[in-house]
Amino acid sequence: MFFFEVVSIQAVNKNSWTGAFLDFLFPPLCLGCGEYNSGKIDICDDCLEAIDRYENPFCLNCRAEITSENAACTICGEGAFLMFAWGNYIDPLKQVIIQYKFKEITSPSRIIAGAVCEQFGLLIKSLEADMLIPIPLHPSREYYRGYNQATLFAERLGEFLDIEVDDTILYRTEKRRPQARLNEYRRMRNIRGVFSVETGLDNTNGRKVLLVDDVVTSGATVYEARRTLQKAGFSVTGVIAMAHGL
Questions:
Q1: pTM for the full model?
Q2: CATH no. for residue 80?
């Protein structure tokens, strides 16, 4: 439902005269494999087929796959930390996300948001979250990159799910080493205490929040974000990501 709406939007642009002329000058390449792509979106059909997609959400606490209709973890119960991700963080999805994060190609934010909502939209909406909160970058890193990839992704999710997005509540106060370069134990230590919550907020008690990030691997970053938000009175029930990998 959601994903095909994205395709139709992309198709109008690529089928226009201007789009055809630009395709002649700059042949469109697939973000996953780098080959010529004549499709309607920026990921070719072969790469779409090759993405190792997750059929169900799972619980980050116990790593159990969630197969119930109400997105409930039979092991952790109300203490579950639900994870909704489109696919495994391996090629070709990994290459798509690398282009998105570091090459200023932002179309995957809408493409993947549509795919996530098509797969998990009803389950996500059943959680009745009051807002989506993207994982923040340190201001210096966001300035260098030009955007926060988690915020763009959250904004597209918010459009599809009709859920408010607020990127002003949670912010990063310290710049540490990139998590990707560390093992799981060092990631937990490296990320500790890097987030803060905006002071003077009203009615935070029990407000339901879903976190949004581009990639979740060990979960150290989203756990720390959840700890910070819960300390401020929010209820964080889960996280939505483009990809997940251990």
A1: 0.87
A2: 3.40.50
